[in-house]
TrEMBL record:
Known pathway: Carbohydrate degradation; pentose phosphate pathway; D-ribose 5-phosphate from D-ribulose 5-phosphate (non-oxidative stage): step 1/1
Isomerase among keywords: yes
Stated name of the protein: ribose-5-phosphate isomerase
GO molecular function: ribose-5-phosphate isomerase activity
GO BP field: D-ribose metabolic process; pentose-phosphate shunt, non-oxidative branch
SUPFAM superfamilies from the UniProt entry: D-ribose-5-phosphate isomerase (RpiA), lid domain (SSF75445), NagB/RpiA/CoA transferase-like (SSF100950)
Keywords: Isomerase
Annotated family: Belongs to the ribose 5-phosphate isomerase family.
Enzyme Commission number(s) from the entry: 5.3.1.6
One GO CC annotation: cytoplasm
Length: 241
């Protein structure tokens, strides 16, 4: 393994090693980076006899949990989680995030909101000063299907630079989320006030959930190109080895 994949693996392992303890209920995020974290968690369960239960944030996360023979639970049985570990598409200096590149932000935000701690693992490409600087595809916004046209018009009126209905790959038509909704990607350029923008977007009728995660993460692990892992917390806003 080399390059970006190695960086993802290192970050995810570091997050799992530092934050998962015996007896915990763990929220499992979605995407390609957390997949390495689930493999690491399974290793620890086998090697250390760790007892954990895992709550997924998507169909993909559920598959990861079951394929790695980890105990699967849900928010009905575990409405309070000790930690949620997830990936991100972009992370700013204050640990605000853009998520939802894989369309899973709604369940991810619900699960994160039920966890005492949200921890993020990401490769070096996700590190950014301000949201919207590196991730140019736009903020993923899950919407109720009947509302997608008026919502796209409202986003344009809010001065979004690009507004796109996410289309499926290998299927004609739109990308349909795990919740049966659609996704609009809206790029607002560099986002100066993520909390204000999130509140504005949440105020549009038909918006289910945005991929802006403001003030939720407590620590981010970045896998670097040179094989090191750096971290960022809200208190030390800079990077430390
Ligand atoms: O919807 C997808 C999730 O928010 C992912 O956590 C995010 O897109 C990062 O994915 P990856 O680890 O594949 O870059």
């Amino acid at each position: 393994m080399a390059g970006v994949e190695k960086a993802k693996d290192l970050a995810a392992r570091a997050a799992v090693d530092e934050f998962v303890k015996d007896g915990m209920a763990v929220g499992i995020g979605s995407g390609s980076t957390i997949a390495y974290g689930v493999v690491r968690l399974a290793e620890r369960v086998k090697e250390e006899g760790l007892k954990v239960v895992c709550v997924p944030t998507s169909f993909q996360a559920k598959q990861l949990i079951t394929e790695n023979n980890l105990p699967l639970s849900d928010l009905e049985n575990h409405p309070q989680l000790d930690v949620a570990i997830d990936g991100a598409d972009e992370v700013d200096d204050d640990l605000n995030l853009i998520k939802g590149g894989g369309g899973c932000q709604t369940q991810e935000k619900i699960v994160a909101s039920c966890a005492k701690t949200l921890v993020i693992c990401a490769d070096y490409r996700k590190d950014s000063k301000a949201l919207g600087e590196a991730w140019l595809k736009g903020i993923p916004i899950e919407v109720i299907p009947i509302a997608y046209v008026p919502i796209m018009a409202k986003l344009k009126a809010m001065s979004a630079e690009t507004v796109t209905l996410r289309m499926a790959k290998a299927k004609a038509g739109p990308c349909v989320t795990d919740n049966g909704n659609l996704i609009i990607d809206a790029h607002f350029g560099q986002i100066k006030d993520p909390a204000k923008l999130e509140a504005q977007l949440n105020g549009i009728p038909g918006v289910v959930c945005t991929g802006l995660f403001v003030g939720m993460a407590v620590k981010v692990f970045f896998g670097q190109e040179d094989g090191s892992v750096t971290t960022r917390t809200p208190r030390n806003a800079g990077l430390s080895a």
